[in-house]
Design brief:
The complex is a heterodimer of chains A (240) and B (350). Chain A is an alpha/beta fold and 240 residues long. Chain A is built from nine helices and ten strands. Chain B has two domains: 95 residues, 3-Layer(aba) Sandwich (D-Maltodextrin-Binding Protein, domain 2); 192 residues, no CATH class. The longest helix of chain B has 32 residues. The chains are: A alpha/beta (240), B alpha/beta (350).
Chain lengths: 240, 350
C-alpha cells in the first residue's frame, strides 16, 4: 500500500469536516474521491497531501509516517491556485524544478503537458486549459510516486478535458499512483480503478467503478453508470 | 459599460469591507491614532511651526516671558522655544536642523545663528528682526553670527530621511502586503506542496527585498548626487552598511506583519499603523527636538529612527561604523526578533 489512512478526523470550529474515515490506496492505481460540495473530499485530500493537519488519525506513506522527504515524492495539482502573474511558463517550470532534488528535464514535461508553444507566455496571459496543463506540469516536475489531482478538469472545454485525461492515463501507465477528486462522474469512471464516495465527512461507498455500478444501480435503472450510483447514494435534492 | 453590474460589484465590495471586522476596525482606529500622535508631538495650544533654540539656560522650565529677548519675538505665535545650556549644544542642534534658529539669551546686541540652507531658519530670522522695536537701528541691537565649521545643508540632512522613508514603505508593502496576497490567492499553498521550507522562503524573500532596496537606494543616491552634489563627510561604504542593516530590520518587520492572515485590508491597516508613526517620529521630515521626552523615547525604539540616526551621523558628521555601533546592534536585534517571530508564526495557508 502506498497510503494507509486510519481513523482520520478533521474538525473546524464546531464542524466535523472529516469524520473518522479509514481506507488504503494500492500502488500504481488511480484512486478517486467523489462527493458533493462540502462532503469532505478536499479536506481529506489536503490532509493526505500534508497541507493541513488532521485533528486525529494516522496517515502512513509506504508504511511509514510522512517526513520532509514526503514532499519530494508527491506532486499536487490544487483546485484553486494562482501562479506568479509576471513569470513566463518556462520561468515558472524552471523555478519550481529548482525546488526538487531530481527534477525531470523541462523539455520532457513541456512535451508531456503540451506546453511547448506557450513557454514564453506570461502566466496571466494563458488560457484556463493552458493553466491547468501548466499546473499539472508543475505537479509532475519531480516524477512523483504519488500524484494528487484535485478537480483537474474543472472549467475545461471537452477538448481540453480529453487532453487532460490522456495525460493522466499516460502518467498512470508509468506506474504512478494517482489520487483524483472530481465532480465529473464520467471522468472518474474513465480514469479511476478504485473509488470512495464521501458524504458528510464519512465514506458511504467504496469499490471499483464496475463494483459500485453493480452494487448501487437498481435493476433496470438507466443509465447504468457512476452518475446513477452517485445520485442513488447521495440523493437527488440540491443541497445548499 | 453596464451600470447594473458595476453597482452590484460596488455593493458587494462594500459588504466585504464592512464584514471584515479587523480591516473595518483599523480604518477607524488608525486615523484616531494618527491624530492622537500629532496632538502629542504638537500638543501646545499654539502649534509650533518654528523651533528657536535659546542659550545659555540650564532649566527647560524657564518662562518665555523671563527671556531677555525682544518682547515682540517672545509674543509671536507658532514659535517653540527650546533651551540649551551652552552655545556648542545649540549649534550642534542647529547644524543638524533640529532647530531653525539659535539665539543668545543676553542683553543687546542679541546674537543669533541660522543655517544658511534652512528655509525655516530664513523665515525665523525675518520674524526675529521684524520683532525688534520699530525704528531701532537693527545693526546695533542684533548681530548675526557665523556658524563655524562645515554647515550641513538642509537637503543633506533631509535626503537620508526621504530615502529611509521610501525604504520603509517598500519593505513593508513590498513584503508584508504581497505575501498576504500570495497567501490569499493560493500561491503560498502551491509552494507548501514543494520541499521548500518556510524559513527558506522567508529568507529568500528578505534577501530579495534587501537587494532591491539597496539597488534602488544606490541608484537614487547616484542620481540625486549628480543633481544636488550631496556632501558626505563619512564613508559611503559605511552608509551602505547602515542602510543594509536598516533594510533587513524593516523587511523583517514586514515579514512579521505577513506571517499570518489572508485579509489584504487588514495587512494594509497594520502596515499603516507601523509606517505612519515611523514617518512622523523617526525624524524623516522634521526634528523631534523639544517634543516630550517619552515621545523621543518611543522614537528611539523605531528601526527607521535608528537607521536614519546612523546614516545621518556618517553623512553629516563623518562618523565611522564604530560610532554608530549601538544603532547597528539595535537594528540587528530588531531583525533577529522579528525574523524569529515571523518564522514561528508563519503559515502558508491561514
Amino acid at each position: 500500500m502506498i497510503l494507509e489512512i486510519d481513523g482520520l478526523v478533521k474538525r473546524y470550529k464546531g464542524i466535523t469536516a472529516v469524520d473518522g474515515i479509514s481506507f488504503s490506496i494500492r500502488e500504481g492505481i488511480c484512486f478517486g474521491l467523489l462527493g458533493q460540495n462540502g462532503a469532505g473530499k478536499t479536506t481529506t485530500v489536503e490532509m493526505l497531501e500534508d497541507i493541513i493537519t488532521p485533528t486525529s488519525g494516522t496517515i502512513l506513506f509506504k508504511g511509514r509516517k510522512r517526513d520532509r522527504a514526503f514532499r519530494e515524492k508527491i506532486g499536487i495539482q490544487f483546485q484553486h491556485t494562482e501562479l506568479l502573474a509576471f513569470l513566463t511558463v518556462d520561468e515558472t517550470l524552471k523555478t519550481f524544478s529548482r525546488f526538487y532534488k531530481h527534477p525531470l528535464p523541462l523539455a520532457e514535461i513541456k512535451q508531456l503537458c503540451m506546453l511547448d508553444t506557450i513557454g514564453k507566455q506570461m502566466n496571466n496571459k494563458i488560457s484556463g486549459g493552458q493553466k491547468q496543463r501548466l499546473l499539472l506540469g508543475l505537479a509532475l516536475l519531480n516524477a512523483p510516486d504519488l500524484l494528487f489531482l484535485d478537480e483537474p478538469s474543472t472549467g475545461l472545454d471537452p477538448q481540453a478535458r480529453q487532453h487532460m485525461w490522456k495525460i493522466i492515463k499516460g502518467v498512470k501507465q508509468q506506474g504512478k499512483t494517482i489520487v483524483l477528486t472530481t465532480h465529473y462522474m464520467e471522468e472518474a469512471q474513465t480514469l479511476c480503478d478504485e473509488i470512495i464516495i464521501m458524504d458528510h465527512g464519512k465514506i458511504i461507498a467504496q469499490g471499483s467503478p464496475t463494483e459500485l455500478i453493480d452494487q448501487y444501480c437498481g435493476e433496470g435503472q438507466e443509465p447504468q453508470n457512476l452518475e446513477t450510483v452517485f445520485l442513488n447514494l447521495t440523493g437527488r435534492n440540491l443541497r445548499e | 459599460m453596464n451600470l447594473k453590474r458595476m453597482w452590484a460589484v460596488f455593493v458587494s465590495r462594500n459588504h466585504e469591507f464592512f464584514r471584515d471586522r479587523a480591516a473595518f476596525g483599523w480604518n477607524f482606529l488608525f486615523p484616531f491614532l494618527i491624530v492622537a500622535g500629532f496632538a502629542v508631538v504638537f500638543g501646545n495650544e499654539n502649534q509650533a511651526q518654528f523651533k528657536v533654540g535659546v542659550f545659555p539656560l540650564a532649566s527647560q522650565e524657564t518662562a518665555i516671558q523671563d527671556l531677555d529677548l525682544p518682547q515682540g519675538f517672545k509674543e509671536t505665535k507658532y514659535l517653540d522655544f527650546v533651551f540649551f545650556s551652552d552655545l556648542d549644544q545649540g549649534l550642534d542642534r542647529l547644524k543638524h536642523h533640529k532647530i531653525d534658529m539659535l539665539v543668545e539669551n543676553a542683553s543687546q546686541p542679541w546674537r543669533y545663528w541660522i543655517s544658511d540652507s534652512s528655509p525655516k531658519g530664513y523665515v525665523a530670522e525675518k520674524i526675529f528682526r521684524e520683532s525688534a522695536m520699530p525704528g531701532a537701528p537693527l545693526a546695533k541691537i542684533m548681530k548675526k553670527e557665523k556658524i563655524h565649521g562645515t554647515q550641513i545643508r538642509y537637503i543633506d540632512w533631509l535626503f537620508p530621511g526621504i530615502l529611509g522613508m521610501n525604504m520603509m514603505f517598500s519593505a513593508l508593502y513590498g513584503v508584508g502586503f504581497v505575501i498576504v496576497r500570495y497567501r490569499k490567492n493560493g500561491v503560498l499553498k502551491r509552494l507548501k506542496a514543494t520541499p521548500l521550507t518556510a524559513f527558506e522562503y522567508l529568507t529568500a524573500q528578505m534577501l530579495s527585498r534587501v537587494f532591491l532596496l539597496l539597488f534602488t537606494v544606490g541608484m537614487v543616491w547616484i542620481g540625486c548626487d549628480l543633481t544636488f552634489s550631496f556632501h558626505t563627510e563619512g564613508s559611503l561604504l559605511d552608509v551602505a552598511v547602515v542602510f543594509a542593516m536598516g533594510s533587513i530590520s524593516l523587511v523583517s518587520l514586514g515579514l512579521l506583519v505577513a506571517s499570518r492572515g489572508t485579509s489584504e485590508e487588514f495587512a494594509n491597516g497594520v502596515i499603516n499603523f507601523i509606517s505612519w508613526p515611523m514617518m512622523f517620529l523617526s525624524e524623516v521630515w522634521f526634528s523631534l527636538e523639544g517634543a516630550p521626552e517619552w515621545v523621543q523615547t518611543i522614537a528611539g525604539v523605531l528601526p527607521l529612527t535608528r537607521m536614519l540616526s546612523g546614516v545621518r551621523r556618517i553623512v553629516n558628521d563623518g562618523a565611522v561604523l564604530a560610532d554608530v555601533m549601538p544603532d547597528l546592534l539595535f537594528l540587528g536585534a530588531v531583525s533577529l526578533v522579528c525574523l524569529s517571530l515571523a518564522s514561528w508564526f508563519f503559515s502558508w495557508t491561514e
